[in-house]
Recover the amino acids of this structure.
């Protein structure tokens, strides 16, 4: 059934000996096996499933010094004994390769990537949690492995996939968001559109400051004018204004979220008007004040959809959303999760069933 994937007897034993803990949150419990595939001499080697273990790397390994790294976030679903299902895995594959291209890394063939993530969901199917909103979070990633302190692109890489039985990333009903007006996440010509660790590393100081001020997430504005709304370091942004669903138009500084794309389609199918445009923070705050903006929410693979209760300035000025539990957000979330979990009809052919 698999053309590339090789599974060691030790990996099978590790799966047989693993018990899913009764409680888990996001990304803490890790499945007992992992996938490894090395790129050298211009080609990808064997795709191996081995027991989960630490990896040994030379301290001069490029990823440690120059951050040449990319990743994806995706999920396998097995709620109420349905599935297992994967959701649009080809989209993750193509975004992975866009990130690879931007970061000067080797691209990975579709069949290797798809076998790797399908194999992890398949062999770990007994560890897919079965409550609504829970899933097996899959983390494909690639690191640069040349051993050399010179600043030049690596020509060897390690691709790996981990799996983690996970609850929702954000467990609160809604979040308070800090409008970040000092730092920038991404600038034109930079790496903002790539899913690379450095973009997340660069956001951490702002999230520490937001947390200190009592807020949960950072809202990033465009680097040059600090005026257009971009994203929330790992989540895309939406607002409902006069009944129309708005989201920032993609630029090279915004991650092209797969959940974002799905929500646009789902909202259209549900009859909402959708507007993708450059959204000015100054206008949005006025629209929250005059109550024409009734909801803001954020979305991503890990977080699904989370309503935003307040947008806050550093000095504490707060713009509260009347409908913080968001009726549109609720409807979109129920529809998206229903499709992903096989409880609603998959009219867009987004779901792949693993045999
Ligand atoms: C995802 O939604 O999968 C992400 O990559 C976001 C990360 C912050 C967990």
């Amino acid at each position: 059934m698999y053309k590339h994937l090789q599974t060691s007897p030790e990996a099978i034993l590790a799966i047989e000996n693993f018990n899913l803990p009764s409680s888990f949150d996001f990304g803490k419990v890790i499945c007992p096996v992992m996938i490894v595939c090395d790129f050298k001499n211009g080609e990808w080697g064997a795709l191996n499933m081995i027991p989960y273990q630490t990896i040994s790397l030379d301290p001069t390994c490029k990823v440690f010094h120059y951050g040449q790294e990319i990743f994806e976030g995706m999920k396998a679903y097995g709620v109420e004994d349905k599935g297992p299902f994967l959701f649009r895995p080809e989209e993750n594959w193509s975004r992975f390769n866009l990130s690879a291209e931007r970061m000067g890394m080797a691209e990975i063939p579709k069949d290797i990537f798809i076998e790797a993530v399908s194999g992890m969901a398949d062999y770990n199917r007994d560890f897919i949690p079965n409550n609504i909103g829970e899933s097996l979070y899959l983390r494909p990633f690639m690191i640069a492995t040349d051993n050399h302190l010179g600043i030049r692109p690596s020509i060897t890489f390690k691709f790996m996939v981990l799996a983690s039985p996970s609850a929702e990333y954000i467990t609160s009903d809604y979040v308070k968001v800090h409008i970040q007006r000092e730092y920038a996440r991404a600038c034109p010509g930079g790496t903002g559109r790539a899913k690379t660790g450095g973009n997340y590393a660069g956001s951490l100081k702002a999230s520490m400051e937001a947390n200190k001020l009592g807020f949960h997430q950072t809202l990033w504005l465009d680097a040059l004018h600090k005026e257009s709304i971009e994203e929330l370091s790992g989540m895309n942004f939406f607002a409902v204004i006069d009944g129309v669903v708005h989201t920032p138009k993609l630029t090279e500084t915004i991650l092209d979220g797969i959940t974002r794309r799905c929500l646009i389609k789902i909202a259209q199918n549900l009859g909402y008007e959708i507007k993708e445009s450059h959204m000015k923070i100054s206008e949005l705050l006025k629209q929250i004040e005059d109550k024409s903006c009734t909801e803001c929410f954020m979305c991503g693979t890990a977080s699904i959809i989370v309503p935003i209760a307040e947008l806050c300035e550093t000095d504490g000025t707060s713009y509260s959303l009347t409908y913080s539990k968001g009726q549109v957000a609720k409807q979109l979330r129920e529809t998206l999760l229903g499709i992903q979990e096989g409880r609603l009809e998959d009219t867009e052919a987004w779901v792949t069933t693993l045999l």
Q: What stands out?
A: The radius of gyration is 21 Å.
